[in-house]
Amino acid sequence: MESKFAHIIVFFLLATSFETLLARKESDGPEVIELQKEFECNGKQRWPELIGVPTKLAKEIIEKENPSINDVPIILNGTPVPLNYRCNRVRLFDNILGDVVQIPLVS
């Protein structure tokens, strides 16, 4: 029992020793700035007005309003998705009725 407690204490000490990720400034170095520029996407990025709209219609609207988006998967709400970020993708989360239930975002 004592060794489990010791492991928990060590885990929390290690976890609190790591710094959280913060926004960086130009003084932090060019490699950090280049990484931030990589994720700057062009065109419209979010469509809150599409909540409740049928997903097939929402897909057409998104592709029309931002031509750089060519990947618009329709996903059942609650399905786990990878957290990688791509400027050409907008995930549409729908319910069983086929309506958009989350704000579509470039992700």
UniProtKB/TrEMBL annotation:
It holds the Pfam family potato_inhibit. It comes from Solanum commersonii. Keywords: Protease inhibitor, Serine protease inhibitor, Signal. GO terms for molecular function: serine-type endopeptidase inhibitor activity. Belongs to the protease inhibitor I13 (potato type I serine protease inhibitor) family. This is Uncharacterized protein. The keyword Signal applies. InterPro entries: Prot_inh_pot1 (IPR000864), Prot_inh_pot1_sf (IPR036354). Residues 1-23 form the signal peptide. GO terms for biological process: response to wounding.
